[in-house]
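User: My instructor asked us to take a sequence, write out its structure as tokens, and then describe one feature of it. I'm not sure where to start. Here is the sequence I was given:
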Amino acid sequence: MTKFSDLNLNPKVLKAIDEAGYESPTPIQAGAIPPALEGRDVLGIAQTGTGKTASFTLPMLSLLARGRARARMPRSLVLCPTRELAAQVAENFDTYSKHLKLTKALLIGGVSFKEQDALIDRGVDVLIATPGRLLDHFERGKLLLTGVQIMVVDEADRMLDMGFIPDIERIFSLTPFTRQTLFFSATMAPEIERITNTFLSAPARIEVARQATASETIEQGVVMFKPSRRDREGSEKRRVLRELIEKEGDACTNAIIFCNRKTDVDICAKSLKKYGLDAAPIHGDLDQSQRTRTLDAFRNGELRFLVASDVAARGLDVPAVSHVFNFDVPGHAEDYVHRIGRTGRAGRQGKALMICTPRDEKNFDAVEKLIQKEIPRVEVEAKSTRKRKSDEQPKAEEKVESTSQVESTPQVETKTEDTPKSDKPSSSKSSRSRSRSRSSDRNDRNNDRGGKDNKVVGMGDHLPSFIALSFDERRAG
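Assistant: Let's start with the prediction itself. The structure tokens for your sequence are:
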């Protein structure tokens, strides 16, 4: 078996690896490190959780061990799609470079420009950044990329999915043509083929697993769920989620729950809290400080459930995640692989469960087609259904009672409606004739009283005297 000591890494890097407790490289590390140390371009394709970060971190540190950075001109550049992944890569550099005198800077959103400018001005050996913040610094004239010797694109397919293609191409154009480029990704989309053909020179292609495959250490399952009514889908899905968590019991030590929309992330987290489950949300609309605190609490075991959007689906390394719950079927089949890859990492056992509604079946079929495997169906207990029916029964009874009251109150109207249509014209004519006779009698009485005002229903409080006069009297007047 290959060991790290066989890979010609810098002795100080090997010492840090040994102190971290690692002895043998993963397949992607064993395949990517040797050509990277030779200065070749590398295209690494491997499922998530296989150690891609160390595949470029370790050779970069060995190559950068000699030399010195100049102000505003980093010697190497690592591009990451999300702030969390960039911060995690920075932690890896801290772990493996502690015996080397190398400097690094982390350029991500949500952090002061002033602090980042101060680091760049001193000169950094390793610059780790998200594309947007990197270009912001460049356009402000605070950064030059002409000294980049090694450039890494981590989670390349996620970069492309998030719409970073123009930014990536621009950044490539700002770096020297002679740079060494390392591309690492879990899937290989056609757009990545185009990018690699354009910007990589005869890369060493290392593919240690079939594209878009889930780890064999992950037990998968899906609940085919049909809501009773469309407007109750959200609440009933959350009930199914709680049942799945309850069914797993103590085996579910911690879990990441993925939702497609940020609003559902917040709602789901609140719902779990309401039912006594320790949960917190994380998505792109939250402040970076809050996202960092939530992630730290989850890593440290202080938080049991992390409810997340796909911002947490790529590259986040929390080694001991026991479960992943897909509250929604992901819109892109590749995201399923990345989501469930948060569990079962580094050879551990993990479990991934998903809830699929009828409207998700098309996306679910795409997932099964991608992983080339049928996901086992899981049954949930029907107790929630019985609860739901019992909960709804009083409401139905109340509705019946209220309806009967409304229908029983207007008894006269009911009798009128039951009258045959053929009788209505005659009855209406007779009623009009009776009303005329009553009004004429009333006018006669008013005439007999000398035309004094009298209260008439429908004419206000009083009837003016001139209206009560007969036509003969008006003519005489």
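For the description part of your assignment, you could build on this observation: The longest helix spans residues 383-408. Try explaining in your own words what that tells you about the chain.
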